[in-house]
Amino acid sequence: MNRTEFITVTAIILFSAFVLGWFASWLVHRITRPTKASMSDLDMMAQQLHDAEETRDQAVAQLEEREADLASRLAGAEAELQAAMDGLRESRTEVEELRDYIEQKLARR
Question: Which superkingdom (predicted)?
């Protein structure tokens, strides 16, 4: 085998390897390509995910609204409790003063 034949055979082998690699790549791409049915499934799943995210956002907004409402109701209840405790404290003081007054009047007799 002379030099020219060797170069020709090497070129044919390399070209054959290139064509075989290109064909294998095309075949793999053709086999793994998503079908229209799987694309419609993907679109449906994307829409369901979008709907689920919207539902989650609405639920979070409702939760925050309820939390704010409960916090304001709690603050109002605490203010009422504090006012009631202050009134009770004043009433106890007044009762003690009245007892002392009555005891003094009874002691003078």
Answer: Bacteria
Work out the angle at residue 19's Cα, subtended by the Cα atoms of residues 13 and 20, and round it to the nearest 5 degrees.
Answer: 85
Measured CA to CA, the distance from residue 88 to residue 98 in angstroms comes to 15
Query: Apex CA 85: angle with CA 82 and CA 86, to 5°?
Result: 85
Rounded Cα distance, 96 and 89, in Å? 11
pTM of the model: 0.52
Instruction: Say whether both 96 and 59 belong to one domain.
Output: yes
102/73 same-domain check? yes
48 and 22 share one domain:
no
